[in-house]
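README, section 4: Worked example with a bound small molecule

Sections 1 through 3 covered apo chains. Here we extend the same pipeline to holo records, where the ligand is supplied as SMILES alongside the sequence. The molecule in this example is zinc ion. Nothing else about the input changes; the structure line simply encodes the ligand pose together with the chain.
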Amino acid sequence: MPLPTGQNTRTISGYARVLLDYPRWVIEREVDFTNCPHDGRFDSDDMGCTSCRFGTACRWLNVNVSAPSPDVALPELIGALDAAVAYLHSPKRYESPHERGCHCDTCEWLREAKSFLRMHRHRR
Ligand SMILES: [Zn+2]
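The generated complex, written as structure tokens:
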């Protein structure tokens, strides 16, 4: 995945912000709000939302709909990354599992995000 230029990737949280661009892009395209009674606003009290097949992605998107502001703390960024990794890694997303060493955008991103999380999880 080509990283957008002009962003600060030298700091840990700057890099976490850049990593969040890809799942936001993917999830925005995957979630279909055509039949959503809430117009895409996740409502955790609504059974319809919690059982919706887009529920996990929709909840993520509602929190991460725009790029995180500079004052979002690293633990929150890591939490958002964790959730994005769990979502993109879910076998339900694929007709067949991707092989190890697959070079599609999603697998490349997952490898990058997971190694980032391995390195920085302990900083929570
Ligand atoms: Zn793949």
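What to look for in the output: The pocket of zinc ion is lined by residues 98, 102, 104, 106-107 (CB under 6 Å). The chain has six helices and no strands.

Section 5 describes how to batch many such records.
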